[in-house]
Amino acid sequence: MSKFDKNQVSEFCLEGRFLDFAIKDGYKLKGLLLATAEGECYVKLAKDLRAAFNLQLPKGTWLQVVGEKTLDLKTGEVKLKASQVMAAGGDRGTGGQGDRGRRGESVGVSSLAESKGKSGKATILVCQKSDCMKRGGDGVCRALELALSDRSLSNEVTIKGTGCMKNCKAGPNLVMPDKTRYSRIQASQVPALIDKHFADKIVEKSENQREVVISTISIR
């Protein structure tokens, strides 16, 4: 029996309530856990979705997921891989808790990558496990908050604590929005990292502030 004979591949479309993200190694987004009419299920996200998924997605959101279903004819195991994730819309009997989005509206935009949505935020991931905290993780988090605030980026960039990143001896560990990973980061290095990874946003903020000043002077 060939490899193709062992598996039956077809398309699927299901709706369910978002329960949680499936995370690997403490920070790698792999898929979604959904509550459907048939019970809880795991849906793996295609690579392009993982790179730009909204990690701020509220739990309880009703989603419609479209993708590929693979059935192992030998074991009966079914694997789901999403190619598109959208807000399902409507009240599904959850006591009035809606999906917080319009039906058919994509919810897979912005997360680890730079935010492309109006309300989305770029996300900096910081390990919160004890080894990283003992090596200065708390100070790194405070330095990140201060650096973002000083550059007026607090409303555009969020800091999210994660589980272990599997590199405890090299902590503190963090992952920037473009997925660049840093180890042994010290609080004193944080401002330079923010300037490096958010240079475009900082320049944009500076130009906007300059325009406001010029506009104010002109009015006077």
SSE map:
Blueprint: H1 3-6, E1 7-24, E2 28-36, E3 39-45, H2 47-50, E4 62-72, E5 78-87, E6 122-127, H3 130-150, E7 157-162, E8 174-175, E9 181-182, H4 190-197, H5 199-219
Parallel strand pairs: 3-5, 6-7
Antiparallel strand pairs: 1-2, 1-4, 2-3, 4-5, 6-8, 8-9
Features:
220 residues, alpha+beta, five-stranded mixed beta barrel, four-stranded mixed β-sheet, 9 strands
Description:
The chain is of the alpha+beta class. It has five helices and nine strands, in the order αβββαβββαβββαα. The protein is elongated, with a radius of gyration of 21 Å.
Instruction: Tally the helices.
Output: 5
* Distance from first to last alpha carbon: 83 Å
- List the strand order in the largest sheet: 1-2-3-5-4
Residue ranges: pLDDT <50 for 5 or more in a row? Answer: 90-102, 108-119
Tell the overall outline: elongated
Provide a brief overview of the structure.
The radius of gyration is 21 Å and the shape is elongated. The protein is about 25% helix and about 30% strand. The chain has 5 helices and 9 strands, in the order H-E-E-E-H-E-E-E-H-E-E-E-H-H.
